[in-house]
Each structure stands twice: as C-alpha cells, then as structure tokens.
C-alpha cells in the first residue's frame, strides 16, 4: 500500500477499479482436492482434541461425500494489470475470497444460477480494498476432467455399496449416515440421483469474474459484472470484444470526485455511481434495507451496541453476500467511530483458527447446509455476540449495558423504515399485507441473491416462505433428487423494461433509505458527544513529543466527561469511552492540531458546530431528552440530485489494437482474454488523468489517503500505527499465508498483545484507585467513579476470560476460566480424599493482649470456589467465573490463586496447546506480577455487587481483663449494621465471647450496638473492642469501645453504639494471616476520647486553637462528602461519630473549661449540663429585645427541650455520652445545631458549670462556631438507623 511521489497519469488512486480477476479450474493441473479444506478438517480434529491418526481419517471425510459435493482447488486464471505498486496483488488471498469453498461441480440436473458476493481485504495498516465477485457455471470441455469425475464416482459408489452391504443394521440409518446429506433411502435412489455418467450427463464447473476496487461501489460493480456475464451467455456476441469493456473500467473510468456522480458504460447500458461530498457521511453502498430485513430492528440495535463495546462478533449465514452486507452495514453505522480490530466478514474455512483469537473481532462464518448452531464449537463465548443471520436470531453476552435512550432510538428508526414500507421486525416475521408482498417482490428484483440476470419473474412462494423450516427441507430434498423448484421464468425481453425501471427507482429508494438511517445513527452520537472537545487533553507541544509519550499520556478527561452525563447514559458511556475506537477517535482529534483532519472527524465536528448554532443551550448542561434527527430530507435530496443530474461521463469503451482471430466468441464460455492489451493503460490521453493544478492533486491525495487508498510515506506513519495500535493485539490476519510458522507467529503476537493489555489494565486500575484513595487522605482530587471502577473490573474479567480461552485444546462450557477451575477442584478433592491428611491451616489463633481473638481464616482457592458455587443467584459459568474473580480481587488473592491454579502443570498441559498464553512461562510470570500490583488497593467489588447473597459472619468481643471480669453474668446482646442493612438484636450465648451468624450481605460494616440487661452479680463489663469478620471476603472490622457497660459505673450505660474501621492486612507475606487483631490503636480511639471526664489519667488536653481547627475539619469533611458523586461517598456515620467526627469535635468544645472535677466523688458529664439547661428553659420565660427574636428563640427552646426529652425517654439504656451523640446527630440531620448553640451559650447554668475562659463563654468563638455549622444547612443528611433507634422526635 505504500508508494512514493504523486500518482502519474491514470494512476490507480484515481481509478475506479484496480484489478479484473478471473478464477476457476486450471485444466492443466486437473482435479486437485482442496488442501485448505483438508487443513480445515485437520484443524477441526485438533480443536476437538483428537489424535493425529483420527485426524488423518478425518482428512478423508472430503471423500465420504459424493464427488459433486467435494471441494477442489481453484486458481487465479488471469488478473489485469499484473501489479500496481500501491496496491500489490495478493494472489492467494484473492483466490481464497473469490472462491471461499474452492471449485464446485454441477450437472444439468442441478441449480446453476449465478451468484454474486463481495469481500474485503483489510491490510495490516487498516486500509481496505473491496472485491466484487460473480460466480457462474461453465460447461467442462476437458475430456480428462470429465473422465476423472466419472472415475471418482465409480470408486465412491463401490465404497458406498460395500458399506451398505456390510452394515446389518437398519438400512435407513446406515444410509442416512453414509450419504452426504442423508435423505435418500435406498441404494437405487442413491445411484440414480447422486451420480455422474459421462455418457448421459453434462458436467459444469464454477468460475468467477471479479473486480477489485478502492471504494465500495457495490451497485455499480454488480451491474458491470452482470452485463459482462450476459454478454457471455447471450446468443448474440457483444457489440465489442470483452477486452474493450474490461480495459475501459480498469484504465479509463475514474473515481467520481467527492460530491459528484459519474456515468460509465457496461456492455449493454450505462452505469451510474455517486460519491458523497466532503461534508456528507462517507460512502456506503451496501443496502441497509437488507440488514434490517435480515436481523430485525431490535436485534440490529443490540448487535450494534456489542460492536460499539468491542466485543467479539461472529456472523453466521449460508450466504456470503449476507455476511458481507451485515458486516459492512453495521460498521457503516458506527460513524464517526471506526472498528479498530480484526475484521474478516468472510472467514475462509482454512482460517477457522482465527476464531481462537483472544481479541475483539468482527468475523463472518459460512454455515454449512443443515448444520446446527449447537454443533458449532467456538473457542470462547463469554464475550461473544453470535448472529445467526438466516434464522433471524442472536445470542448476546451475559452482561452488557443498553444503548442510551434505546426505546426512543428504536422508535425513530422504525418511523424511517415504515416510510419505506419495511417492517421493523424484519422480513422473516412479515405479515401478508399487500404492500409487504409487493415489497418482497421488489426486494427480490434488487437483491438478486440467486440469479445473475436481473430477474423479472413473478413472485414465487418459496421466497416468501424462506423462514419456514419444512419448506427449506423439502426444497433441499427436491434439489438433491433433481426435481427443480425454481421460479418459472418468462423470457427476459417481455418485461425487461419494467424491471429496469423499478430497478432504478428501487436503487434510488435504497440510497435514500441508507442515508436517512445513517443520519439517525450519526445524530445519536452528535447529541451524545456534542461537547466532547471540552474534555480532550491537549498536553503535548508538538506531534513528535505526543507520539513518543502517547502510552503514558491521558488523552481524555473521562471522569469529568462522565460526571456531566445524564444518569441513564452512564452504564453505556463508561464502557464505551474505554474502547479502542473511542481512543483512536480522540487521538485523531489531537493529531488534527498538526495535520489535516481525518475525514470522519471533519464531518463530525462540522455537525457539532451546526448543532451549537441551532441550539443555544449551554453545552455543559446535558439532558437525556431525546432529540430526533432533523437532517433526513436534506441528506436524501443531495443524493437524489446527484443521481438525477450526472456530473461526469467516462470515455465509451472502444476497439483496442488487438490481434485478429483471438478471443473468438463462443456462447456460454468466458473467452481467453488477450493479456497484452489489458496489461497497461493508455498513455496520457484522457481528460481526468492529468488533473490540472498541483493543489488539486495534493488535496486529492490527502483525501484519498484518508479514505484508505492513498500513500503512506515515511516513519511518521509507522509511529502513527504504533500509537494507534496501543492496546490492540493484532490488527488483521494475513489471509494468504498459512504455514504452521505463520500460525505460531500470529499466536505469539496474541501472547504479547495480551500481556501488554494486562499491563495497561492493571496500571489503569491502580492509578484510578490510588487517585481515589489519595483524595481520602487529602492529596489532590478524585478522578474515578464507582461506575468507572465497575467498568474497569468488568474489562479485567473479560481480559482473563480471553487469556484462558487462548490456545484451548478442547472447549468445555462457555467460560474457559471456570472450566479450568472446576477441573482443578476435581483433582484437588480427589487428592484430599485419598490423602485424608489434615491441611495445614496455619496457627489456629493468635493471642492478643487480652488472650481472645478471631481464628485465622484459611487461604483456599477451593474454598472461594465453593462460596461462589453456593450462590444460588448466579446461574451461568461466565457469571461464576466473574464472581470468583471479584471475590479474589477483594481478598487481594487474585494473583496468588491464579498462580496456584497454574502450578498444576499436568492439568495446564492437558487443557492447553503449546502456544497458549498460559504455557508461555515468562509471560505468565509477568502477567501474575501485574495482577499482584492490584493488592496495593482495597476493592469491594464482590461485596458491593452481590448485595442479596447470604454471608456468614463471625464476631468476637474482647474485654479488658486487667480491669474487669472477662465474662459478664448478665445477658449480653449485639446488633451489627452495614451500608446495606443490619442483623437485628442477637443474643450472645452465655459465657461465650465469640459467635457466628449468617445474614443477607450487610455491605461494608459501619456500626455495632452492644449491650446487656444488667442482671446477675457481675453485671459491670469493661469492653475493649468488638471484632467482626465477613467469612467469605475475610474483611475484618474493629469496633473500638474502651468503656464500661453497667449501671453505676462510667456514664451508667447499658448499651453503646460503636463505630467500625476496616482492619488492613499488614503485608503481602501476611496474606494468610490477614484477619488477626491488630495491635492496640496507636492514637486514642473514639471511645477513649468520648469521656475525657471518666478517664482522669489524660494529661494532654487540646488547646482552644486545636479544638476550633477540629470543628472546622469535621464540618469540612461532611461538606466534601456531599460534593462527591453518590456512588463514591463512603460512610457518613464515620464522619459524624468516628474518630475525628463532628460529635467528637463538639465534645471537645463542650469539655473546654468544663468544671469536671468530681463533685462529691461523682462524675459530671456534658449531658448533666444539657439537662440543667432544659430544666431552665422549661421553667423560665425569656426576655427578648423584640417580638420576632423572642418568637424565634422560643421555638428553638421548645424544639431543644422536645429533642432532649425524647432522647431521655427512649426505651434504650444509653449512657450520658451516648445521649449527647444522639442529640448532635439529630441536630445535624434537622439543621438545628446552629440554633441550639447560642441558646446554650446564653443560659444561666453555663456560669455555674463552666470556667470564665471556656470556649462556650466567648462570644466570638460561639459566633464563628455557628457560622461553621450553618454550612451544613444545604445538605440532606440521612442517619443510619442504628444511631437513633428508639428515639421518636
């Protein structure tokens, strides 16, 4: 594809067609079985894990079929010109794609209708060339080949006969199995219909003519080939020798300039093609009508979404042209984005191993007649979208987000379809109303699926009942038995004119429909990404430095972009902006600072500017209101104008300087063309070849470059490709090369690509998460949303599935990873049973200072699998594998578990081929190392996703034995609460400090309420802390207490609310011991600080400045909490009641200058001051300066007294400090604190209970405290139930 210098006269980049190709049987080499077909059979055998000798037998399966059904080798018989330097001719690839099944033979009894299909060759740099092929049948004149076929038949029949005689079982069965398509029931029938007799039958063989073009002018090429074919089969020779027409299209027909139409001449009539203008959607000539008829609108939108999310898409149909039409149709609709991965719309049988590629791909596979989807073995299906075109059926991956505004979108498209008379549900479910019937007739004329000539026959029922299985079977049977069920054809001449007329009209309708449907799709993206430009990060000063540092640079501010989007769009958009096609789109945007814009980008940007002119809405205000496409009429008009008013006409075909007497016309046979006249074009004698000015030429070249047909010149292109192929593993398989070495090389590229992708993904997950956690610690700003984290984890799950399905020997189940895990589990359990030896569990318990702690949780891959297997909510293997990955990631054991799984080398050898990623040792080690880096951060990706599962928890209460008895005689109880719910009150068994309980997932744990009923002799209890552990994820929470429970001791509390903190595992080596109690807190815990009065031993009292700072920080943290996106806010309870929470900060304020020396040896608490204040408010009448202030003060006093009394009368045995905590929480929730503080600061009891220098007696401090608390007025604060349980205000 690379060439240098400007194109010369008549140079190919300006030519309509690059090559004309003829493929068929090579009479000299005779009948050669198609090695590729045999290779394919061998690959299949390998895929099913058969041994090589069975594979040898399999390779002979081709010979079990009747000779007419076998595949034979085709050859490229001729191609003109010999070569073009900027588009070298790839003989093997063209041969393979022109005749993907090789040669096929027919007799006069078989259907010999010509067939059209197209193909595409995508080069490694992503540029494309299109091929259009007409396959027809030509009588075999070589005596040698006819004799060979007869001999093959005699051998075949003898074999069949002996196998039938030998089998004594029911002849029905044996015959059905031995006959190729097994419907015939007797030997006689077998020999009569499935045979070839040289004396009686005429033998025909397939041949094809093909045009290879730089742009997909499908309709024009189809017409040209059909006219050429007609010239060969008609009774009259064509007006000029065929060489004239072929020479004309190769050398004298230019590409129409953008925005213009062109007329050129076929054998019998002119052909018109048109090309969209610079600001229109790029050229697409494949009829979208057919795509919608084949798939139905709903299915199409689902497949389209899968393509956008870069899943693996496999199209499946008997008809090559359908595969091509659907693939091209769907990729056309992606505008302004472009598919960046493997793209092979027609996958030749010999390349089936490409389905093993662990990368996103869009491929088309031809289905064999009568084969069932269930028989199709695909290497991996976890992320596969399977599209059975012929049966109107799709299989989707398990989890994927819906396209935004899907319902309104479908509604808008169906309105366009209905205007053109196309049922949105597709044509297989067509109702028999007259319009739709008529539509079918018309589509039949235009589709021209089976007939080479443009048919003008009446509608036949078979076409209508295509979807009907019974009819299809009957037809197949009829075909085999030689009974034709073809349409009754009328002579072409009678109705040719009508046919032609409706054909042109239909073509125009198809063009209009195409462009209108594409406008609707393009409009969705224009609306969705109207302000994408604001989020593009333009960091590099010049192209050179950008290309060099591309890998490290962020090119799009994803978090800000997502935070601007409407909520319903997020699931889709957060996945989509991670795709390669989006990354390339943004790269193109950045490169456009230094270069001419990519054409797709240019058109898209101009549309966005248009929107902004019409819509004066602020671009940042996103709305999920659906806005329909308003440009449908204009788009259809511009195409109509071009087709009605032709801009350019090419030179007529003319006589060439040919040798007389060669290429004699013989009806039904394609003549041997004179290669010397077709090898080169005319010298500079035509108008369009020397396009005048250099600027025009430069513009053309740039435009053609961008349309994948130009010249890529220097190192920059290499850089560009490298930059663009980041994260891609393999752009495009090379079709022509199939040696084992090449297959190995390809697999090696896959392995390198997977490793690179793993490195990028883990790095991205770390950076995002570290950023997030750095914010929690107060460094910088957050840049990840819970949603984005989920997307990244889902893509990690997908990557692991792809790695595990690379190089599988035999596929079992839809998830390769889960199937590997199951086999590992089976082996391990067998060994356990046979050994019956106790597994080393590690030290059972570790004594803490108090002597009681949680038992160590065993690290076990099998145990984690069992947890997942016990989850009845998950129904599929793919789901189980994902759950297991999430669980391992949350436990920080993913790398360790996978290492253990792969350490069983015998199993790995049994399951994987030598080239598989998992058997490349160095890469595997690096891969596990990358995954190990994820242990640096905390994920809750299992707990937060599986919210309804039952989870076993274990709790242990740790008393301070030195100062109190370990066990209380009263009846203790506990209630554990988390973000998702609570356990309710649970009695702790007497004389026990440890208990296990099971309940629905509580999420991250937040509080524990602990208490007792104060009965028995030893009722007083000093609790150090409570530990609670999730027995599935191993997360352990510590709830520090450090206070007494009991009447007449401390603040007289019989129950306390404890605030939890997650205990982090200390280091990687200690992974196995991560659940032990950590050493005593270094800083004083919440609880120790709670009653400064009760622990007289404290020497360091904070000063006034520190206390005020503490209040500011506590309030600031709450404000920050509400400014984060909802999904990543964390726990508000900790910000209120935790170590540096608001309650603790206000306690410091109230303790400052508090006369707390024990009065008559009795502790005095803040709550005593609060109660004195209430007593004062209830008895006195306040005197205010004016009426209004007085009313306000009165209502504040009233609510204050009401709240305090409600707390005092609550049916809970909460101590005085606990009551103060509840009061602060309720005051914060109801925005009353700022009204209560001044009341307390003014009331007379303050002078008795506080010293002169106390903060509460300093008017300035009180005013600043009120201002700080008022900043919380705007927030809707919802308290956790456990904090205010039983308090009724």
Broad shape: elongated
N/C terminus separation = 79 Å
Instruction: Tell me the number of strands.
Output: 24
Helix content: 40-55%
What portion of residues belong to β-strands?
5-15%
Q: What is the count of DSSP helices, taking H or I runs of 4+ residues? A: 43
How many strands, which pairing sense, and closed or not: the largest β-sheet? 6 strands, antiparallel
Q: What structural category characterises the helix and strand content?
A: alpha+beta
Rounded Rg: 39 Å
Outline the low-pLDDT stretches: 1-11, 42-62, 168-187, 429-467, 481-501, 617-621, 685-716, 722-731, 774-784, 837-850, 1067-1099
- Residue-averaged pLDDT, rounded? 76
List keywords for this structure.
about 1300 residues, alpha+beta, 6-stranded antiparallel sheet, 43 helices, disordered N terminus
Produce a short descriptive summary.
With 1289 residues, the protein is α+β, with helices and mostly antiparallel strands. The chain has 43 helices and 24 strands. One of its GO terms (cellular component) is membrane.
What layout of secondary structure does this protein have?
Blueprint: E1 19-24, H1 35-47, H2 52-59, E2 75-80, H3 91-98, E3 105-107, E4 115-122, E5 128-139, H4 143-166, H5 171-178, H6 187-193, E6 203-213, H7 218-233, H8 242-252, E7 261-265, E8 270-274, H9 288-295, H10 297-308, E9 312-317, H11 320-332, E10 342-344, E11 361-366, E12 384-388, E13 393-395, H12 406-419, H13 434-447, H14 461-464, H15 469-480, H16 492-528, H17 543-548, H18 558-563, H19 570-576, H20 580-591, H21 599-614, H22 632-644, E14 648-649, H23 675-679, H24 694-706, H25 715-724, H26 740-776, H27 786-804, H28 816-835, H29 861-869, H30 877-890, H31 894-903, H32 905-911, H33 921-932, E15 950-959, E16 972-978, E17 981-982, E18 986-987, E19 994-1000, E20 1005-1012, E21 1021-1030, E22 1036-1045, E23 1055-1059, E24 1061-1063, H34 1086-1090, H35 1104-1123, H36 1132-1137, H37 1142-1151, H38 1166-1179, H39 1187-1209, H40 1216-1229, H41 1233-1242, H42 1245-1249, H43 1259-1270
Parallel strand pairs: 7-14, 9-11, 9-12, 10-11
Antiparallel strand pairs: 1-2, 1-6, 3-6, 4-5, 5-6, 7-8, 12-13, 15-19, 15-21, 16-17, 16-18, 16-20, 20-23, 21-22, 22-24
